[in-house]
Amino acid sequence: MEYIKRKIAPQLIANLQRGKSILLLGARQTGKTTMIMQEIIPDIMYSFIDPEIRLRYEKDTTLLAKELKIVVQQKKNPIIFIDEIQRVPNVTDIAQLLIDQKQAQFILTGSSAHKLKHGTSINLLAGRVAALIMDPFHFDELPHDYCDLNEILLYGTLPFIVLEKDNNNRESDLRSYVTTYLEEEIRSEALVRNVGNFSRFLELAASESGNIVNFTKLSQKVGVATSTIIDYYQILEDCMITLRIDPIIHSPSHRRLIKSPKYLFFDLGVRRACTNEGAQLPAKYLSHLFQQYIGIELLHQTRYLPSTQLKYWRDSNNIEIDYVLESAGKYIPIEVKWTDTPSLSDARHIQKFLSEHDNADKGYIICQTPNPIAITDKITALSWRNLRNVLK
Length: 392
Fold this sequence. Notes:
By secondary structure, the protein is of the alpha/beta class. It folds into three domains: 9-133, P-loop containing nucleotide triphosphate hydrolases (Rossmann fold, 3-Layer(aba) Sandwich), CATH 3.40.50; 139-242 and 267-281, no CATH class; 295-391, Restriction Endonuclease. The protein has 15 helices and 13 strands.
Protein backbone atom coordinates (compact mmCIF):
# COMPACT_ATOMS: atom_id res chain seq x y z
CA MET A 1 0.00 0.00 0.00
CA GLU A 2 1.18 3.52 -0.79
CA TYR A 3 2.90 5.32 2.08
CA ILE A 4 2.22 9.02 2.56
CA LYS A 5 4.77 10.74 4.78
CA ARG A 6 3.28 12.08 8.01
CA LYS A 7 3.93 15.51 9.50
CA ILE A 8 4.64 13.99 12.89
CA ALA A 9 7.46 11.79 11.53
CA PRO A 10 10.27 14.39 11.87
CA GLN A 11 9.25 15.03 15.47
CA LEU A 12 9.34 11.31 16.24
CA ILE A 13 12.75 10.89 14.60
CA ALA A 14 14.18 13.96 16.34
CA ASN A 15 13.16 12.62 19.75
CA LEU A 16 14.77 9.26 19.02
CA GLN A 17 17.98 10.95 17.85
CA ARG A 18 18.27 12.82 21.15
CA GLY A 19 17.96 9.55 23.05
CA LYS A 20 14.28 9.69 24.06
CA SER A 21 11.85 6.81 23.93
CA ILE A 22 8.39 7.37 22.40
CA LEU A 23 4.80 6.82 23.54
CA LEU A 24 2.66 7.25 20.41
CA LEU A 25 -1.09 7.21 20.99
CA GLY A 26 -3.85 7.40 18.41
CA ALA A 27 -7.07 5.70 17.32
CA ARG A 28 -6.78 2.45 15.40
CA GLN A 29 -5.93 2.70 11.69
CA THR A 30 -4.47 6.21 11.90
CA GLY A 31 -1.18 4.87 10.52
CA LYS A 32 1.02 4.55 13.61
CA THR A 33 2.56 1.18 12.76
CA THR A 34 2.94 1.98 9.07
CA MET A 35 4.81 5.20 9.81
CA ILE A 36 7.16 3.56 12.30
CA MET A 37 8.02 0.67 9.99
CA GLN A 38 8.60 3.08 7.09
CA GLU A 39 10.54 5.76 8.97
CA ILE A 40 12.41 3.90 11.71
CA ILE A 41 12.77 0.15 11.05
CA PRO A 42 13.04 -1.00 14.70
CA ASP A 43 15.46 -3.70 15.77
CA ILE A 44 12.66 -5.86 17.15
CA MET A 45 8.87 -5.60 17.22
CA TYR A 46 6.15 -7.06 19.44
CA SER A 47 2.54 -6.62 18.34
CA PHE A 48 0.08 -7.21 21.14
CA ILE A 49 -2.81 -6.97 18.73
CA ASP A 50 -1.97 -10.59 17.83
CA PRO A 51 -3.83 -12.77 20.38
CA GLU A 52 -1.15 -15.48 20.45
CA ILE A 53 1.65 -12.99 21.11
CA ARG A 54 -0.42 -11.11 23.67
CA LEU A 55 -1.35 -14.29 25.57
CA ARG A 56 2.31 -15.34 25.68
CA TYR A 57 3.30 -12.25 27.67
CA GLU A 58 0.09 -11.88 29.65
CA LYS A 59 0.83 -15.26 31.25
CA ASP A 60 4.37 -14.27 32.18
CA THR A 61 5.61 -10.70 31.71
CA THR A 62 9.07 -11.75 32.94
CA LEU A 63 9.39 -13.70 29.70
CA LEU A 64 9.66 -10.42 27.79
CA ALA A 65 12.37 -9.21 30.15
CA LYS A 66 14.38 -12.39 29.52
CA GLU A 67 14.03 -12.04 25.74
CA LEU A 68 15.02 -8.38 25.76
CA LYS A 69 18.06 -9.18 27.87
CA ILE A 70 19.39 -11.12 24.88
CA VAL A 71 18.46 -8.30 22.48
CA VAL A 72 20.45 -5.66 24.42
CA GLN A 73 23.42 -8.02 24.67
CA GLN A 74 23.48 -8.45 20.89
CA LYS A 75 23.12 -4.76 19.96
CA LYS A 76 23.97 -1.56 21.77
CA ASN A 77 20.94 0.61 22.51
CA PRO A 78 18.45 -1.16 20.20
CA ILE A 79 15.10 0.36 19.25
CA ILE A 80 12.33 -1.88 20.59
CA PHE A 81 8.84 -1.40 19.15
CA ILE A 82 5.81 -2.60 21.15
CA ASP A 83 2.47 -2.12 19.40
CA GLU A 84 -0.84 -1.79 21.31
CA ILE A 85 0.89 -1.45 24.68
CA GLN A 86 -2.40 -0.96 26.55
CA ARG A 87 -3.27 -4.62 26.00
CA VAL A 88 -0.41 -5.76 28.28
CA PRO A 89 0.29 -2.51 30.12
CA ASN A 90 2.48 -3.99 32.87
CA VAL A 91 5.36 -4.44 30.41
CA THR A 92 6.03 -0.71 30.84
CA ASP A 93 7.94 -1.67 34.00
CA ILE A 94 10.38 -3.60 31.83
CA ALA A 95 10.69 -0.64 29.46
CA GLN A 96 11.42 1.69 32.38
CA LEU A 97 14.25 -0.51 33.65
CA LEU A 98 16.00 -0.66 30.26
CA ILE A 99 15.45 3.06 29.63
CA ASP A 100 16.86 4.00 33.04
CA GLN A 101 19.87 1.78 32.44
CA LYS A 102 20.30 3.40 29.00
CA GLN A 103 20.33 -0.04 27.42
CA ALA A 104 17.48 0.47 24.92
CA GLN A 105 15.04 2.93 23.40
CA PHE A 106 11.38 2.07 23.10
CA ILE A 107 8.60 3.03 20.72
CA LEU A 108 5.33 2.18 22.47
CA THR A 109 2.08 2.65 20.58
CA GLY A 110 -1.50 2.39 21.76
CA SER A 111 -5.04 3.04 20.60
CA SER A 112 -6.46 3.55 24.08
CA ALA A 113 -5.14 5.51 27.01
CA HIS A 114 -7.91 4.17 29.25
CA LYS A 115 -6.01 1.33 30.90
CA LEU A 116 -2.79 3.31 30.89
CA LYS A 117 -4.48 6.19 32.73
CA HIS A 118 -6.80 4.34 35.05
CA GLY A 119 -4.86 1.24 36.04
CA THR A 120 -3.85 1.49 39.70
CA SER A 121 -0.48 -0.18 39.17
CA ILE A 122 0.35 0.98 35.65
CA ASN A 123 3.69 2.66 35.01
CA LEU A 124 3.19 5.69 32.77
CA LEU A 125 6.94 6.25 32.29
CA ALA A 126 6.63 9.88 33.31
CA GLY A 127 9.61 11.90 32.12
CA ARG A 128 11.09 8.92 30.30
CA VAL A 129 9.18 9.09 27.04
CA ALA A 130 8.15 11.76 24.56
CA ALA A 131 4.36 11.49 24.33
CA LEU A 132 2.98 12.06 20.81
CA ILE A 133 -0.49 11.70 19.30
CA MET A 134 -1.23 10.36 15.82
CA ASP A 135 -4.28 11.82 14.05
CA PRO A 136 -5.94 10.85 10.79
CA PHE A 137 -4.46 12.75 7.83
CA HIS A 138 -4.24 16.49 8.34
CA PHE A 139 -5.32 18.54 5.33
CA ASP A 140 -1.67 19.26 4.44
CA GLU A 141 -0.99 15.50 4.31
CA LEU A 142 -3.82 14.58 1.95
CA PRO A 143 -2.94 13.52 -1.60
CA HIS A 144 -3.98 16.02 -4.28
CA ASP A 145 -6.74 13.74 -5.57
CA TYR A 146 -8.45 13.73 -2.17
CA CYS A 147 -8.93 17.43 -1.48
CA ASP A 148 -12.60 17.77 -2.48
CA LEU A 149 -14.39 19.24 0.52
CA ASN A 150 -17.54 17.12 0.19
CA GLU A 151 -15.42 13.97 0.03
CA ILE A 152 -13.59 14.93 3.22
CA LEU A 153 -16.84 15.75 5.06
CA LEU A 154 -18.51 12.49 4.07
CA TYR A 155 -15.67 9.96 4.24
CA GLY A 156 -13.16 11.51 6.63
CA THR A 157 -9.39 11.28 6.40
CA LEU A 158 -8.33 7.93 7.86
CA PRO A 159 -5.46 6.60 5.69
CA PHE A 160 -7.19 3.36 4.66
CA ILE A 161 -10.23 5.37 3.50
CA VAL A 162 -8.20 8.04 1.67
CA LEU A 163 -6.24 5.41 -0.25
CA GLU A 164 -9.41 3.49 -1.21
CA LYS A 165 -10.86 4.98 -4.41
CA ASP A 166 -14.23 3.21 -4.52
CA ASN A 167 -16.92 4.93 -2.44
CA ASN A 168 -18.90 1.71 -1.96
CA ASN A 169 -15.81 0.11 -0.45
CA ARG A 170 -15.29 3.16 1.72
CA GLU A 171 -18.84 2.81 3.09
CA SER A 172 -18.28 -0.87 3.82
CA ASP A 173 -14.89 -0.25 5.44
CA LEU A 174 -16.24 2.52 7.68
CA ARG A 175 -19.13 0.33 8.87
CA SER A 176 -16.66 -2.46 9.56
CA TYR A 177 -14.44 -0.07 11.53
CA VAL A 178 -17.34 0.89 13.77
CA THR A 179 -18.38 -2.73 14.31
CA THR A 180 -14.99 -4.34 14.84
CA TYR A 181 -13.26 -1.52 16.67
CA LEU A 182 -15.62 0.90 18.32
CA GLU A 183 -18.00 -1.80 19.51
CA GLU A 184 -16.07 -5.08 19.80
CA GLU A 185 -12.76 -3.71 21.00
CA ILE A 186 -14.26 -1.42 23.60
CA ARG A 187 -16.33 -4.40 24.75
CA SER A 188 -13.30 -6.73 24.83
CA GLU A 189 -11.41 -4.32 27.06
CA ALA A 190 -14.37 -4.45 29.46
CA LEU A 191 -14.67 -0.69 29.37
CA VAL A 192 -18.48 -0.89 29.55
CA ARG A 193 -20.78 -3.38 31.23
CA ASN A 194 -23.97 -2.86 29.24
CA VAL A 195 -23.06 -3.00 25.56
CA GLY A 196 -26.60 -2.17 24.43
CA ASN A 197 -26.64 1.09 26.37
CA PHE A 198 -23.19 2.01 25.10
CA SER A 199 -24.17 1.30 21.47
CA ARG A 200 -27.17 3.63 21.81
CA PHE A 201 -24.94 6.23 23.40
CA LEU A 202 -22.36 5.90 20.61
CA GLU A 203 -24.98 6.65 17.92
CA LEU A 204 -26.33 9.64 19.85
CA ALA A 205 -22.85 10.96 20.63
CA ALA A 206 -21.99 10.83 16.93
CA SER A 207 -25.20 12.69 16.09
CA GLU A 208 -24.39 15.33 18.72
CA SER A 209 -20.78 15.77 17.55
CA GLY A 210 -19.94 19.47 17.44
CA ASN A 211 -22.86 20.46 19.66
CA ILE A 212 -22.73 21.60 23.27
CA VAL A 213 -23.35 18.49 25.34
CA ASN A 214 -26.46 18.22 27.49
CA PHE A 215 -25.50 15.27 29.70
CA THR A 216 -28.91 15.11 31.37
CA LYS A 217 -30.82 14.96 28.10
CA LEU A 218 -28.52 12.25 26.76
CA SER A 219 -28.92 10.20 29.93
CA GLN A 220 -32.70 10.29 29.51
CA LYS A 221 -32.45 9.13 25.88
CA VAL A 222 -30.05 6.29 26.65
CA GLY A 223 -31.71 5.32 29.92
CA VAL A 224 -28.68 5.55 32.18
CA ALA A 225 -27.47 7.91 34.89
CA THR A 226 -25.89 11.24 33.96
CA SER A 227 -22.67 10.07 35.61
CA THR A 228 -22.64 7.08 33.25
CA ILE A 229 -22.93 9.37 30.21
CA ILE A 230 -19.95 11.35 31.51
CA ASP A 231 -18.03 8.08 31.94
CA TYR A 232 -18.95 7.02 28.39
CA TYR A 233 -17.58 10.27 26.99
CA GLN A 234 -14.39 9.73 28.99
CA ILE A 235 -14.03 6.28 27.41
CA LEU A 236 -14.39 7.76 23.91
CA GLU A 237 -11.88 10.47 24.79
CA ASP A 238 -9.40 7.94 26.21
CA CYS A 239 -9.79 5.81 23.07
CA MET A 240 -9.02 8.88 20.92
CA ILE A 241 -12.51 8.77 19.33
CA THR A 242 -13.73 12.13 20.61
CA LEU A 243 -11.90 15.41 21.00
CA ARG A 244 -13.03 17.70 23.81
CA ILE A 245 -13.37 21.49 23.46
CA ASP A 246 -13.97 23.43 26.64
CA PRO A 247 -15.73 26.81 26.80
CA ILE A 248 -14.42 30.19 27.83
CA ILE A 249 -16.11 30.69 31.20
CA HIS A 250 -14.99 34.20 32.21
CA SER A 251 -16.65 37.28 30.72
CA PRO A 252 -15.35 40.86 31.14
CA SER A 253 -18.89 42.10 30.47
CA HIS A 254 -20.40 39.66 32.99
CA ARG A 255 -22.30 37.74 30.35
CA ARG A 256 -23.85 34.47 31.50
CA LEU A 257 -21.72 31.97 29.61
CA ILE A 258 -22.39 28.33 28.79
CA LYS A 259 -20.01 26.06 30.68
CA SER A 260 -20.62 22.61 29.14
CA PRO A 261 -18.01 21.14 26.76
CA LYS A 262 -18.30 20.26 23.10
CA TYR A 263 -17.06 16.95 21.70
CA LEU A 264 -15.95 16.36 18.12
CA PHE A 265 -15.58 12.89 16.64
CA PHE A 266 -11.96 12.46 15.58
CA ASP A 267 -12.97 11.54 12.00
CA LEU A 268 -16.07 12.57 10.06
CA GLY A 269 -16.33 9.31 8.13
CA VAL A 270 -16.40 7.31 11.36
CA ARG A 271 -18.90 9.78 12.82
CA ARG A 272 -21.26 9.25 9.88
CA ALA A 273 -20.90 5.46 10.06
CA CYS A 274 -21.84 5.57 13.76
CA THR A 275 -25.04 7.47 12.96
CA ASN A 276 -25.96 5.21 10.00
CA GLU A 277 -26.42 8.24 7.77
CA GLY A 278 -26.28 7.93 4.01
CA ALA A 279 -23.94 9.81 1.71
CA GLN A 280 -26.63 12.17 0.34
CA LEU A 281 -26.79 14.97 2.87
CA PRO A 282 -28.46 18.41 2.51
CA ALA A 283 -26.41 21.61 2.41
CA LYS A 284 -27.55 22.61 5.91
CA TYR A 285 -26.17 19.37 7.28
CA LEU A 286 -22.92 19.75 5.34
CA SER A 287 -22.57 23.18 6.92
CA HIS A 288 -22.55 21.57 10.37
CA LEU A 289 -19.99 18.97 9.23
CA PHE A 290 -17.84 21.75 7.79
CA GLN A 291 -17.84 23.48 11.17
CA GLN A 292 -16.73 20.22 12.81
CA TYR A 293 -13.97 19.64 10.25
CA ILE A 294 -12.48 23.07 10.90
CA GLY A 295 -12.50 22.32 14.63
CA ILE A 296 -10.73 19.00 14.04
CA GLU A 297 -8.09 20.68 11.87
CA LEU A 298 -7.54 23.45 14.42
CA LEU A 299 -7.02 20.86 17.13
CA HIS A 300 -4.56 19.00 14.90
CA GLN A 301 -2.60 22.12 14.06
CA THR A 302 -2.44 23.46 17.61
CA ARG A 303 -1.68 20.18 19.36
CA TYR A 304 2.03 20.86 19.82
CA LEU A 305 1.99 24.65 19.92
CA PRO A 306 3.17 25.85 23.34
CA SER A 307 0.57 27.48 25.61
CA THR A 308 -2.15 27.20 22.94
CA GLN A 309 -5.67 25.89 23.51
CA LEU A 310 -8.79 25.70 21.37
CA LYS A 311 -12.01 26.78 23.09
CA TYR A 312 -15.44 28.11 22.18
CA TRP A 313 -17.59 30.99 23.49
CA ARG A 314 -21.35 31.10 23.90
CA ASP A 315 -23.72 32.98 26.16
CA SER A 316 -27.19 32.13 27.42
CA ASN A 317 -28.74 34.18 24.57
CA ASN A 318 -27.07 31.93 21.95
CA ILE A 319 -24.49 34.49 20.90
CA GLU A 320 -21.64 32.18 19.97
CA ILE A 321 -18.14 32.04 18.51
CA ASP A 322 -17.49 28.60 17.01
CA TYR A 323 -13.83 28.46 18.06
CA VAL A 324 -11.47 30.69 20.01
CA LEU A 325 -7.72 30.18 19.93
CA GLU A 326 -6.18 31.05 23.29
CA SER A 327 -2.43 31.57 23.12
CA ALA A 328 -0.14 33.36 25.56
CA GLY A 329 -3.09 35.22 27.07
CA LYS A 330 -4.46 36.37 23.68
CA TYR A 331 -7.73 35.35 22.01
CA ILE A 332 -8.40 34.83 18.29
CA PRO A 333 -12.13 34.30 17.58
CA ILE A 334 -13.01 32.14 14.56
CA GLU A 335 -16.41 31.70 12.91
CA VAL A 336 -17.06 28.97 10.33
CA LYS A 337 -19.51 29.72 7.51
CA TRP A 338 -20.75 27.52 4.64
CA THR A 339 -20.43 30.25 2.02
CA ASP A 340 -18.02 31.57 -0.60
CA THR A 341 -19.26 35.16 -0.23
CA PRO A 342 -18.92 36.09 3.45
CA SER A 343 -20.43 39.40 4.55
CA LEU A 344 -20.38 41.73 7.52
CA SER A 345 -23.43 40.00 8.99
CA ASP A 346 -21.38 36.80 9.24
CA ALA A 347 -18.92 38.69 11.45
CA ARG A 348 -21.37 40.25 13.90
CA HIS A 349 -20.55 37.86 16.75
CA ILE A 350 -16.83 38.29 16.17
CA GLN A 351 -17.28 42.07 16.36
CA LYS A 352 -19.10 41.71 19.66
CA PHE A 353 -16.38 39.41 21.01
CA LEU A 354 -13.60 41.79 19.96
CA SER A 355 -15.41 44.75 21.54
CA GLU A 356 -15.63 42.95 24.91
CA HIS A 357 -12.16 41.40 25.09
CA ASP A 358 -9.12 43.65 25.30
CA ASN A 359 -6.86 40.64 24.69
CA ALA A 360 -8.38 40.02 21.24
CA ASP A 361 -7.43 42.29 18.35
CA LYS A 362 -8.28 40.20 15.26
CA GLY A 363 -10.69 37.53 14.13
CA TYR A 364 -11.37 35.23 11.19
CA ILE A 365 -14.22 33.80 9.18
CA ILE A 366 -13.30 30.42 7.69
CA CYS A 367 -15.38 29.69 4.62
CA GLN A 368 -15.17 28.67 0.96
CA THR A 369 -13.94 31.95 -0.48
CA PRO A 370 -11.13 31.31 -2.99
CA ASN A 371 -9.22 34.41 -1.86
CA PRO A 372 -8.85 36.30 1.45
CA ILE A 373 -11.42 39.05 2.05
CA ALA A 374 -11.08 41.99 4.44
CA ILE A 375 -14.48 42.08 6.18
CA THR A 376 -13.31 44.87 8.53
CA ASP A 377 -9.89 46.16 9.50
CA LYS A 378 -9.78 43.49 12.22
CA ILE A 379 -11.70 40.61 10.63
CA THR A 380 -10.51 38.57 7.63
CA ALA A 381 -12.32 35.84 5.71
CA LEU A 382 -10.05 32.95 4.71
CA SER A 383 -10.44 29.82 2.63
CA TRP A 384 -10.59 26.61 4.66
CA ARG A 385 -7.63 25.47 2.57
CA ASN A 386 -5.53 28.25 4.16
CA LEU A 387 -6.59 27.60 7.74
CA ARG A 388 -2.94 27.38 8.84
CA ASN A 389 -2.62 31.15 8.18
CA VAL A 390 -4.73 31.76 11.29
CA LEU A 391 -1.79 30.53 13.36
CA LYS A 392 0.78 32.84 11.77
